[in-house]
What we know:
Layout: H1 12-23, H2 30-43, H3 57-74, E1 77-83, E2 100-106, E3 116-119, H4 125-136, E4 141-142, H5 148-156, H6 160-200, H7 204-221
Antiparallel strand pairs: 1-2, 1-4, 2-3
Amino acid sequence: MASLDRRNSMTLDEVGRYLRELRNLESPSQNKVCNSIITIDLAFEGTESSLSQHLSKDKWDRIRTELFDILISSFPGYWNVYEEGSLIPLELRADWPDSGYIEFCPTRSNRQSDILRADLSTIHPSIVLAMRWCWAEGQNQTTVENFKTYRESRLGDQSEEAQTVREFLDRLFETCVTEAEKSKRIAHRAWWRLSSEVSSCQDKQTVKQLKKKMLELENVWGLPSA
């Protein structure tokens, strides 16, 4: 598990609250959107049970999907297309795969951690359509203008169906924020327990393992207050 710069990262409860702000049409921040996705990924990769045992993975997957759609449609970037199970990107103008994933990197980023992936099946259909048009023209770079249709539909659709979807997502986000706040308290208690064990442990290898678990907790939940 990679370590994050805590000055630029977000805790999981902050992620939930930030997406709620985005749902209210706040202009997205590239760093915040990327950091939010990274934090969600870290939350479900950790080996410490208190990282995720009280979280609903399906709900957080839905939040991640929403964030990735916002990222790719709101910021210029370049991307590669991979067939399912492959580690080698497809050549430009190759046949678009029936299944696979996108690897996207915002243009205005110099962090390796900002290269993010999403399964093609989870990306909004209008975003995928715009990317396929670019792909057919031999391009794997996009700007916000390529996704004008998606953004307008996301922000301007006032139909009853769209309103129902927004209400559902609002409830989902509220649930996730509540989950994250509860899990944060549990994680911080676990951090203090591990810190105590580190202080009293004389075995270097055990100390190393304990500190690794502490780092996993910090990456998702931040440092507890003194």
